[in-house]
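Lab notes, practical 5.
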Amino acid sequence: MEKIIASIITIGDELLIGQVIDTNSAWMSQELNKAGIWVRRRVAVGDEAESIRGALDQESAEASIILITGGLGPTADDITKPLLSAYFGGRMVVDEKALANVRHIFERVLQRPMIERNLQQAEVPDVCTVIQNKRGTAPGMWFEKDGRIYVSMPGVPHEMKGMMNDYVLPALRERFDLPFIAHRTILTAGIGESFLAEHIAAFESALPPSIRLAYLPNYGMVRLRLTARGDDPAGITEELEGRFHALKELVEEWMVADEDLTLQEAIGKLLTEKGRTMSTAESCTGGNIAHLITSVPGSSRYFKGSVVSYDNAVKERLLKVDPGTIGRSGAVSEEVVRQMINGVLPLMDTDLALAVSGIMGPDGGTTEKPVGTVWVAAGDRKKVITQKFQFRFDRQRNIELTSTFALNLLRKFILSEH
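Output from the prediction step:
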């Protein structure tokens, strides 16, 4: 089966200078991959006609599908639409459905008058198939030339995703004979990528050409993804499941989940299965752990709240940490995180709790407790376990790593319960 190749072009000066992070192309690549379409390249260009035309010429030389986001707004620097009209030899016309959509949004949703600039968003090249925007004012456009498909969509992520899901992906599946693709994922924690790769090197080298292994590291965790593709769904699935089972046995010691979950989702699943509730007492992470937990839909079933005890006075007043303990051992100590656990459990009335205290940097370290020193505690009213970590990175990465390792310690505690 012929490999279907796609390229993604994102347009906007704000992407090039780092003012806006390009999440569109990452999401589009994932969805195209799931559909069996190979993304050859992702290109970011500024709001310059010459750069955009150059990217279109270059990507169409190698790809059958070129997806474009950005430059469709009402301001002067949004030049994508007229440029595409000229590129494909068309002229600008008003699309009545798009115009009705713009009017509806301004009159009914925003309840404010339109100006001529807004009406221009309903103009499209007469050589395209219009993709109606159910989530905004700028329509998408589908072009075809020399056997290639070009799709231009807004840069606003939720508008682009709506068009991709409702129209673009179904149309691409209908147009192309795409291979069957299946993924299986394992989430690991507590082992570095290089050590993990060394541990499973023999397994990886023995994989057949139809199955690929990807390492996806992120803040103390490594996601292992097996991807199988081919023309025989039943055969491919059977082969993938066998290899996946073998991989699980190899990494069992560090495996957090045998499905595509985040660490916080895995913990939420555990808590839900056991009918347990939890809370956090955070110092150095400033509420980041609570943020991760509550980013999971339905977390209100098992998460009750957090005390961000950044100042020692808050530790003493709300969590009942003994001032003498802080004086003797310091706020970053095993004794303090144990007392934080004992304080937050009755305060939040939860079954389990997690506590962290550390020095994130760049200042505040000492010879005995350098920057990156962290104490973590997890437990219930009967038992508390603790662990000391020593990170060596910048402030933000230290916070992220502390959050990850703390959540993993809580996971281990939950699994150890009888």
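Observations recorded by the TA: The domain at 5-175 is CATH 3.40.980.10 (Molybdenum Cofactor Biosythetic Enzyme; Chain A). The chain is about 40% helix and 25% strand.
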